[in-house]
């Protein structure tokens, strides 16, 4: 199913997307989902980020061709970094070009949404802690990333983590290992085209690695890396991330202020 978070007439809720309607659920989707029986036309609702993560853990250089295009080697162990909750925006929300950068770049990624609190998850139990998957854009101030040893500002500025448009639960880890297409377009022109089958490390290994160190909470998000083809964005650009079997996440870049 596709689980969306939405706002309508000042009320925020979760719903299961069925055709052009949202079937509102009671409470939250982290547990057994109970439908309320209320249905809302999708056109009348504003889609929000599908979850509000406590933390977003991103994985760097998890596609060999992307590592190579930036002059990097594939690391011996996963490179992980945080994007704060304040970086998360939803579908159609505006990306604010950071005032301290001259080189904002897109990175289309598959996002894993965690469904329950977990720690020290063995690889063979990874599927048990996943709610589903979403599209994400790991926006990066590339010049700042190259200039500063820590990536906090380059990767964590406000609006640097578009996420959505919903959480798709009907995808398996085997599907992802076999290959699901990832595409990024800018103003309708294709810039990235890759497959999850090209990940250096699969999702079970990433979950095991991350949860060795920290507890993941329901709604936390793991970004799994980007294929080759990253490049610049300018104010006025419309960037769209499309992932097979999930959907399309679209955002427009604006100048700050």
| DSSP E strands, number | 20
Model regions low in confidence, pLDDT < 50 over at least 5 residues: none
- How many separate structural domains? 2
Estimate percent helicity: 10-25%
Organism: Streptomyces coryli
Protein name: Fumarylacetoacetate hydrolase family protein
Pfam families: FAA_hydrolase, Rv2993c-like_N
GO molecular function: acetylpyruvate hydrolase activity; isomerase activity; metal ion binding
Molecular structure report:
A hairpin with a 3-residue loop joins strand 19 (238-243) and strand 20 (247-255). The N and C termini lie far apart (39 Å). The protein is 12% helix and 41% strand. It has helices spanning 64-69, 142-147, 152-156, 173-178, 203-211; strands at residues 2-8, 11-18, 21-25, 35-41, 46-47, 56-60, 79-83, 88-89, 94-97, 104-106, 108-114, 130-137, 140-141, 161-168, 181-186, 189-195, 221-223, 231-232, 238-243, 247-255. It is built from five helices and 20 strands. It is mostly beta strands and 257 residues long. Keywords: Hydrolase, Metal-binding. It comes from Streptomyces coryli. Residues 55-253 form the Fumarylacetoacetase-like C-terminal domain.
């Amino acid at each position: 199913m596709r689980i969306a978070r939405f706002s309508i007439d000042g009320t925020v809720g979760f719903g299961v997307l069925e055709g052009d309607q949202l079937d509102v659920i009671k409470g939250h989707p982290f547990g057994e989902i109970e439908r309320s029986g209320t249905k809302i036309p999708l056109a009348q609702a504003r889609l929000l980020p599908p979850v509000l993560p406590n933390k977003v853990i991103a994985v760097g250089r998890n596609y060999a061709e992307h590592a190579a295009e930036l002059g990097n080697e594939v690391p011996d162990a996963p490179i992980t970094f945080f994007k704060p909750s304040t970086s998360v925006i939803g579908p159609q929300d505006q990306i604010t070009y950071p005032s301290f950068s001259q080189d904002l770049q897109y990175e289309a990624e598959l996002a894993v949404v965690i469904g329950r609190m977990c720690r020290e998850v063995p690889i063979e139990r990874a599927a048990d802690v996943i709610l589903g998957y979403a599209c994400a854009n790991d926006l990066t101030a590339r010049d700042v990333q190259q200039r500063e040893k820590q990536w906090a500002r380059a990767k964590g500025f406000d609006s640097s983590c578009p996420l959505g448009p919903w959480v798709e639960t009907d995808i398996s880890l085997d599907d992802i290992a076999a290959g699901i297409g990832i595409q990024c377009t800018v103003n309708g022109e294709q810039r990235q085209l890759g497959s999850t089958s090209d990940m250096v490390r699969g999702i079970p290994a990433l979950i095991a690695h991350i949860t060795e160190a920290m507890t993941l909470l329901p709604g936390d998000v793991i970004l799994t890396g980007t294929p080759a083809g990253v490049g610049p964005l300018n104010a006025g650009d419309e960037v769209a991330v499309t992932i097979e079997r999930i959907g399309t996440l679209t955002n427009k870049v604006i100048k700050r202020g």
